[in-house]
Amino acid sequence: MTTDQVLVTAAGFLIIVFINWFFWHKTVKGISAVSSGTRQEALIVVKGGYTPDTIVVEHGRPVRLNFRREETASCSEMVLFPDFNRSAKLPTGETVAVEFLPEKPGEYEFACQMGMLRGKLIVT
Ligand SMILES: [Cu+2]
């Protein structure tokens, strides 16, 4: 290989590494819940999915997730948190709060009643 070929190969490799890193971080990070007093809060828009679909909270502090459903598709009319024994009906256009206390760090899923829409709660 000539020096040029080596450089081009190395540059291509670095770009791939960067792209993987970028998207990996983007998907893993999610958004952090905002503290309000002792509580951690986040707003999640429900429309063809959960936006954001990954929420990062700290363990040992109460969490309030405010779901706002902006569609009428029956698929998303409920949200379930099986690990926390919580579920809520989400009437279109209303903001519904789901509250619980995450005691242990880990990753917990939430989903619609059919499991088609999915989101993740990361407890640190
Ligand atoms: Cu569904």
Q: Summarize this, please?
A:
This protein is α/β, with parallel strands linked by helices and 124 residues long. The chain has one helix spanning 3-29, and strands at residues 31-32, 34-36, 39-46, 50-51, 54-57, 63-69, 78-81, 86-89, 95-100, 106-111, 118-123. The strands form three sheets. Strands 2, 3, 4, 6 and 9 form a five-stranded mixed sheet that branches.
User: Please, how many helices?
Assistant: 1
Name the beta content range: 35-45%
Query: What is the CA-based Rg, rounded?
Result: 19 Å
Share of helical residues? 10-25%
| Largest sheet entry | 5 strands, mixed
- What oligomerization state is this entry in? single chain
Topology pattern, helix = H, strand = E: HEEEEEEEEEEE
Which small-molecule ligands are present, each listed once?
copper (II) ion
Question: Which ranges are low-confidence, i.e. pLDDT below 50, for 5 or more consecutive residues?
Answer: none
Write down the overall mean pLDDT: 87
Distance between the termini: 48 Å
Strand runs, count: 11
* Strand-pairing-aware structural class: alpha/beta
Name the overall outline. elongated
Strand and helix map with partners:
Layout (H helix, E strand, L loop, with lengths): L2 H27 L1 E2 L1 E3 L2 E8 L3 E2 L2 E4 L5 E7 L8 E4 L4 E4 L5 E6 L5 E6 L6 E6 L1
Parallel strand pairs: 1-5, 3-6, 5-11
Antiparallel strand pairs: 2-3, 3-4, 6-9, 7-8, 10-11
Bound molecules: copper (II) ion.
